[in-house]
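thread from #wetlab-drylab

HS: before we spend reagent money on co-crystallization trials with adenosine monophosphate, can we at least see a predicted complex? here's what I'd submit
DV: go for it
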Amino acid sequence: MELAYTAGPVDGALLDVTVGGALRSAAQRWGDAEALVSRHQDIRLSWLALSEAADAVAKGLLALGIERGDRIGIWAPTCAEWTILQFASARVGAILVNVNPAYRPNELVFALNHAGVRVLVTARRFKTSDYHAMIAESRGDLPQVERVIALGTEKTVGTDDLLWSDLVALARDVADEQLAEREAVLDTHDPINIQFTSGTTGNPKGATLTHHNVVNNGAAIASVLGYSTADRVCIPVPLYHCFGMGIGNLGCVTTGATMVYPGESFEAVATLRTIVEEGITSIYGVPTMFIAMLECPEFTGLDTSTLRTGVMAGAPCPVEVMKRVVNEMHAAEVTIAYGMTETSPVSTVTRRTDGLDTRCSTVGTALPNVEIKIVDADTGDTVAVGDKGELCSRGYLVMRGYWNDPAATAAAIDADGWMHTGDLAVMADDGYCNIVGRAKDMLIRGGENIYPREVEEVLFEHPAVAGVQVFGVPDAKMGEEVAAWVSLREGQAVTDDELRAFCRDRLAHFKVPRYWKFVDEFPMTVTGKVQKFKMRDIAVDELGLHDAANIVTA
Ligand code: AMP
């Protein structure tokens, strides 16, 4: 019996540079070439200019007394400052804490307190979120936050708060040598980033990544995609996620490709125009973004033939959508990647040279220096090729652990260093994989992960709610939508709109259930375990979602 195990080729060239060092060598190698374009801000920076901007902010952070290992939060949609701070914080050895732009105050407070953030950099607002107002409201619950640094021209109200321009001005008092001394003591295996992921116990966990993790994963993807200084990469995926800051920003920094941001968050028309007007060669997106672009009325009139490659990832990728990206968007070498934040993020990817079928209908095979196996979740034994089991991944890409949570870390990474992903997969005899389900209670709506337990815990706080079960139902555009079944306490009445509003105050908008059903009881096994798959099947019937349920994915 052939076992479901494969190892990417051992490539001796793992990089041993820090995130800040990678930018320094980019500035040396490609100097005046275009490094970063932020279209909505009308900002264009060369590698030299980006590196100098990162130096100024790094020195500002030193002036504020930021030590190696201190945590700096960033709460902003995509912007040039996000990336400048990514490199600046890494240069002083601080740990950048990515805060989801859609967070509500209670989510923000949990993230900042859990990571022990000393300094928070914040945008003024994003969509309907007034960040300054939410920070003012939460300030009393954030004892560790010493300062808030505001992007733009309007300060937050704390006594020691600053503007971004003040931070840059502080750099004047810091000598180049001081920054060089700090950079010299850094270790590429230091943690430099915390990203909040799974919330199976209600609260998110902080996946903690090192320079080594993210620089090498970015470089590996860039190599698979064949990046050079001739490439221009459109990054509509958010920077707070590894897809943006990792394989986006760091894929470019290691190869001299240009990072191009089409807007502060994804918008189909802006992304399409960016492809055309910027001569984009590589396009990133979760499946929902590609679907939105292909369905966009403007799409048919646009010539996107500069596209050569790209990455679809982050959620099950529909085979037919991949084919349309090849045929209609002309991204002939587009690939599918599979990964998770905890693995920096990519474990497997299809290769540009794979046949169209393989490239559209599998998630590829292990990256160089990465091992993949599929195991029986109960016994831990590797299953046979062709059999279903939990995908595990091992190598340089596995995170340090969950921040301040040794128990959760031990549950995710076993003694042999394998990251247990909670994703169910099948490996073929050539090492290529298909994702066929999830062992974890999670759903993905438009690329955003949602942990039902987190939503259920919020709904349990409502006085009328006796019981609640949250689960995903298929959706042709979003991949999945959130459904909630609720049972009420004796004598209580509440409407779905009231519950929706209750959630909206406490949860990022994407976690708020779309479909509601009031029930007296939930489908259970004889041993009293709730059967979410049965609720999903019933919901598919009742809501008429069979077409979406039948979509074939890689
Ligand atoms: P995140 O940590 O936000 O990157 O989410 C990781 C999760 O997204 C994985 O554990 C998978 O469940 C899912 N995922 C990522 N890429 C793919 C893919 N290509 N196909 C199916 N699911 C994916």
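DV: The mean pLDDT is 96.
HS: ok that's useful, forwarding to the group
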